Amino acid sequence: MKKAELMDYDKALELFEPVLGFEVHVELNTKTKMFCGCANEFGQGANTNTCPTCLGLPGGLPQVNAQAIESSIRLGLALGCEIAEYSRFARKNYFYPDTAKNFQTSQYDEPIAFNGQLTIELESGRLVTVDIERAHMEDDAGKLTHVGGATGRIQGADYSLVDYNRGGVPLVEIVTQMIEGGEADSPEIGRTYVAAIREIVKALGVSNARMEEGNVRCDANVSLRPRGSNILGTRTETKNVNSLRSVEKAVRYEIQRQAALLQAGGTITQETRHWHEDTGITSAGRPKSDADDYRYFPEPDLVPVAPSREWVEELRATLPEPPAARRKRLQADWGFADLEFQDVVNSDLMDAVEATIAAGASAQAARKWWTGEVARLANVAGVSADSLVQPDQVAALIELVVAGTLTDRLARQVLEGVINGEGTPLEVVEFRGLAVVSDDGALIVAIDEALAAQPDVLAKIRDGKVQAAGAVIGAVMKAMRGQADAARVRELVLERAGSADGSAE
Amino acid sequence: MSEITAEQVAHLANLARIDLSAEEIDRLTTELGQIVDSVAKVAEVATPDVPATSHPMPLTNVFRADVVVPSLTVEQALSGAPDRDGDKFRVPAILDEE
């Protein structure tokens, strides 16, 4: 694959105005597929969740999943959409082995939700309102694995393997209107928009929203309009953009690539492009052509969906606080500085921190533990922090530190024990014998021994060289196997040195 | 008379992955034209007070509860496959090398 020429980003923006559009596919977390009772589960053995309906076998008949309709309506409402009084499914006909039916069951001219709006906030504080054209329901395709060829990519593969477990999983496709005026912020608008969608579907509980498992997938449309022109440029549609960072990078890349091509007198081909996470470039897929003549027609095996206005209002009443509003409220409640709060949000730990505070911890302690040690251990284990330990355990750990039972250092060991499944923080403290030695008597014995063993240090302390006490504190901490509060040891060392001084006279 | 052309039939055949000979395209152009003409007769009797519909039955909101039912076994699912590789369907190469 040859690398395309790229124009400097600032230069590209000088010459062209980027125009964006996004299609975000959200996989719903219903128990079953959209049109059949096969389980909607990620990570199962290949082709274990299939039936005649999702395999498109003769005689298979689709039946609409009520929960999927409810989730779609709630998602539409959360995006500020109107909900159709009358909505139909349609067949989108195409031949490709990712569907065995030879069509995708989708919606065409009568989507369930339309005319929405979503306002997103960029890091600069700039607010951008994205108009949502529609949010429609459809079923997902199966998963293809390309075998042979250079790199496991579709180009040059010897053959492909298909797992239809994902075929028929309910999707909502959210389509924006053209986004103009994004200018230099365009890549960030892409990332922030997809992040906002992800946050909303998570808050609604309608999707697992794990981008790494393909629950939220983004196609990014980018075109460039020459400055001073009012004619839209030809757009490309970059698919397979499945992380927030990639959305940003793919938009930026397409702006630079198209600008270089146009400036050199070339033309943009209207085509599907593939994003390559590893190399950070896009490559041409198939051009838009006859193959995109999908011959939509109303699905004859399904009757229309006509949600009553009462039902829609009932569902509207179940909507959670919008994520953006919730963030503002929580930051104010917790008194976090912007950077502290961003750290929590970016680590996806808002729920965990909130639950930890609800379980009795202070906001700062909850933040410190989650974004610090828990996040570090999760990173090492390659899992998400909130899957590693329960908020109430973290709150219990913090309580032990506040009570003086544990130092931060001991608490980190206890946390490891909790994560290893050794029990609650208190149980780990007992099991591993990790509590701080708070018995001054035991500390004084150790301190007196250490002072006696290092008379030169004792002399320095007596001469007022207080920093010399470090050597004694170190010896005592070692004798206590780290299970002492260093600040308390220091106090006692100075006290004992002083009294030793007195007794010597 | 319908406006179905041989080019349209060839285009549809291509979309539907059906390999048609020139004779078959000619015959289907005539036949499809007749079908379109017949359907067009319905439009002559349709009045503005008869809304278009895709279903003969006045039914809406026929839903299924979100309850898992047993799927086919992998062997059943793959039993009609022309080719397989382990538990997956095996299909010919999809795209040529760039």
How would you describe this protein?
Chain A: This is Aspartyl/glutamyl-tRNA(Asn/Gln) amidotransferase subunit B. Chain A: It catalyses: L-glutamyl-tRNA(Gln) + L-glutamine + ATP + H2O = L-glutaminyl-tRNA(Gln) + L-glutamate + ADP + phosphate + H(+); L-aspartyl-tRNA(Asn) + L-glutamine + ATP + H2O = L-asparaginyl-tRNA(Asn) + L-glutamate + ADP + phosphate + 2 H(+). Chain A: Belongs to the GatB/GatE family. GatB subfamily. Chain A: GO terms for molecular function: ATP binding; glutaminyl-tRNA synthase (glutamine-hydrolyzing) activity. The complex is a heterodimer of chains A (505) and B (98). Chain A is α+β, with helices and mostly antiparallel strands. Chain A has 3 domains: 9-300, no CATH class; 323-432, no CATH class; 440-504, Arc Repressor Mutant, subunit A, CATH 1.10.10. Chain A is built from 17 helices and 15 strands. Chain A has helices spanning 9-15, 66-78, 186-204, 244-263, 309-316, 323-334, 338-346, 350-358, 363-381, 385-388, 391-402, 408-419, 425-432, 440-453, 455-462, 469-479, 486-504; strands at 16-27, 64-65, 82-83, 90-93, 103-106, 113-121, 127-139, 143-147, 159-163, 170-176, 216-226, 236-241, 271-276, 281-287, 297-298. The radius of gyration of chain A is 30 Å and the shape is elongated. Mean pLDDT of chain A is 90; it is low at 501-505. Chain B is mainly α and 98 residues long. Chain B has a domain at 1-48: Histone, subunit A, CATH 1.10.20.60. In chain B, strands 2-3 form a two-stranded antiparallel sheet. In chain B, a hairpin with a 2-residue loop joins strand 2 and strand 3 (88-92). In chain B, helix 1 crosses helix 2 (22-45). Chain B is flat and about 55 Å long. The interface between A and B is large, with 64 and 38 residues. Strand 9 of chain A pairs antiparallel with strand 3 (88-92) of chain B.
